[in-house]
Hints:
The chain is mainly alpha-helical.
Amino acid sequence: LPALQKKKNGPKIVVVKTLKDAVAKAFTASSKGDKIALSPGATSFAEFNNEFERGKFFETYIKKVR
Length: 66
């Protein structure tokens, strides 16, 4: 993570604690017409029981910030 943050033309990285926070940040950083995708790099068992539950919450959060 620190190595990616130091790259001039690398991706913008924002660290958040929850999926809900990540969705909110993604909407803040996006422009009309942009697509926001869920692409986790690790499991999230501390927050969700499985990937299906995580996906349902992602959809719920997206619908709330629209």
